[in-house]
Amino acid sequence: MKALQGFVRNMAKNRAFLLMVLPGALWFLIFAYLPMPGAILAFKQYRLDLGGFFSGIVKSEWTGLKNFEFLFQADDAYIITRNTVLYNLVFIALGLVLSVTLAIILFQLAQKRLARLYQTAMFMPYFLSWIIVSYFVFSFLSVDKGVLNQLLAAFGVEAINWYSEPAYWPFILVFMNLWKGIGYSSVIYLAAISGIDRSYYEAAMIDGANKWQQTIKITIPLIKPMMIILTILAIGGIFRADFGLFYQIPRESGPLFPVTNVIDTYVYRSMKVVGDFGLAAAAGFYQSVVGFILVLAANWTVKKVNDDQALF
After folding, report:
1. Using one digit for the tens of pLDDT, what is the confidence trace for 95-111?
2. Which of 50, 153, 186, 285 has the smallest set of CB atoms within 10 Å of its CB?
3. Domain locations in the chain?
């Protein structure tokens, strides 16, 4: 009874913080936890039923691991897995370096109003839909009226059919991912840097340390825990691709599939053509399990090096 009373008092005491957390908690409950029982579709051959979606799940035939076998035996299995993993590794590495660098530069700007202006300008692309961004990209890469081809023509260079040349697209996709997400990530690191006690920098300046030395000896070591935590969480999603980036930006161009097709787009196209919900559920289950294992492995590695900087 006393434990219950203590719990109620603690809830009442922290009600303001709980209300702040409530929207995020509801989002995870509705979109992340409630759909979890649907993972059973990965082990069934789903068929529509007149009784509705849940009736279809119950009455569908149990197929065991056949959906997973179909996923891994597909001709494109190696390509989509390779693309998903390699792109995410590049996104994580470059995103970390550029986000931290950008946050440090913004922090060092003497004119804070100008820094806030830059911060807002770089943060805005994060809110743009990939559908809208795809039209901007098309205005640059269009064969007939694209800005880049017009520039090439001005210098006497033959126009490039960008949507039929796979060689350029790893660079285009990496650039677009960084352009859209770098501002959001830098804001997180900028908040961490802004929380550092200014007395550290004052003591360093008294000792004659320049800006570079202050960054290397103070800023980076003190935000390292934040860098490690965000990297561990990013590693957990290494088998998940940004569907909008890989589907909308290349405009579903067939010649680009060898470098733009990832697990998410492959499953979507399979559902679009075949309507196989079991395959989609199997791919999602596979991504979630591997991501969970990678988070545990990354956290275990960090814990072995420095227990205080591990996620849990």
Report:
1. 999 999 998 888 887 66
2. 50
3. 69-309
In this structure, how many other beta carbons lie within 10 angstroms of the beta carbon of residue 241? 26
b or e along 279-301 (b: 16 or more beta carbons within 10 Å of the residue's beta carbon)?
bbbbbbbbbbebbeebbeebbee
Asked if 187 contacts 119 with a C-beta cutoff of 8 angstroms, the reply is: yes
Q: Do the bridges between strand 61-62 and strand 44-45 make them parallel or antiparallel, or are there none, so unpaired? A: antiparallel
Over the Cα atoms of the chain, what is R_g?
A: 24
What 3-state DSSP class applies to 240? coil
Per mean pLDDT, which range of 12-21, 206-215, 248-257 is the poorest? Answer: 12-21
What is the pTM (predicted TM-score) of this model?
Answer: 0.83
Q: Distance (Å, rounded) from C-alpha 231 to C-alpha 222?
A: 16
> Is 178 exposed, middle or buried (CB count within 10 Å of its CB: 0-12, 13-18, 19+)?
middle
Q: What is the pLDDT of residue 177?
A: 93
**Both tokens of residue 104?**
């440090």
Closest CA to 220 of 298, 104, 90: 104
Read off the amino acid at residue 120: T
User: In the predicted model, is pLDDT for residue 268 greater than 90?
Assistant: no
The secondary element (H helix, E strand) that includes residue 80 is: helix 77-108
Q: What is the pLDDT of residue 101?
A: 92
What would the CATH number be for the domain defined by 69-309? 1.10.3720.10
Please determine, for residue 249, whether its predicted confidence score (pLDDT) is greater than 90. Answer: yes
pLDDT of residue 132: 92
Residue whose token pair is 């082990």: 43
pLDDT recorded at residue 111: 67
